[in-house]
Amino acid sequence: MNGSVCRSGLVSRKGRRAAPAIFAVTLKPGGCFAALSRHKAAPTEDGVDSKAGHYCYSGAIVQRIKGYHAHVYYDASTMEQARELCEEATRLFPVTMGRMHQKPVGPHPDWSCQLAFGPEVVGVVLPWLALYRKGLVVFLHPETGDELADHRDHAIWMGAIRPLDLSIFGV
Q1: What is the distance between the alpha carbons of residues 69 and 160, in angstroms, rounded to a whole number?
Q2: Is the pTM of this model over 0.85?
Q3: Alpha helix locations (H) across 14-146?
């Protein structure tokens, strides 16, 4: 994991010092961004916040997620816009940029470029893509080892939902 603890000194709405981040992502070329923060009330040993009666998150579910792929869709008229977006993502975040495909590849119905990144940065990459995609369609999915479910059931779409060719997964 490419992270470090970031001491923001933030204060809560109730005037209390904010809980420290679980971890923070060091962005390129410097800077620090808290990707996740602690539950506002410390969990008890059994995982239940006895004051609020809430179950505290254990992380067991997302431990299945080994990484993420964001596929940026484009056509001939938006290819340069997509390239600039993907290249900027690699400058800002620990993201690997794939090829700029000028034909549909795999289950994807349009030209696309893949951005691959670890689960520790999804909390900063996803909102950044949402804000800076400027009309491009972005298809984001986790990597859990079940490609069909990752593409069909666990997908996040930004923009128009496009029909995927799931037959490559044996459907």
Answers
A1: 17
A2: no
A3: 79-92, 122-132
Whose tokens are 């009666």? That residue is: 53
Q: Cα 31 to chain center, whole Å?
A: 19
Residue-wise pLDDT for 26-83, tens only, equals 455 544 444 444 344 444 444 443 333 333 344 555 568 999 999 999 999 999 999 9
Q: Fill in the amino acid letter for 38.
A: R
Using a CB cutoff of 8 Å and minimum separation of 24, what contacts does 141-145 make? 141/68, 141/69, 142/65, 142/66, 142/67, 142/68, 143/65, 143/66, 143/67, 143/68, 143/69, 144/64, 144/65, 144/66, 145/64, 145/66
Residue type, position 148, single letter: L
Strand locations in the chain (E): 3-4, 21-25, 33-37, 48-49, 54-55, 67-74, 95-97, 111-117, 137-143, 156-158
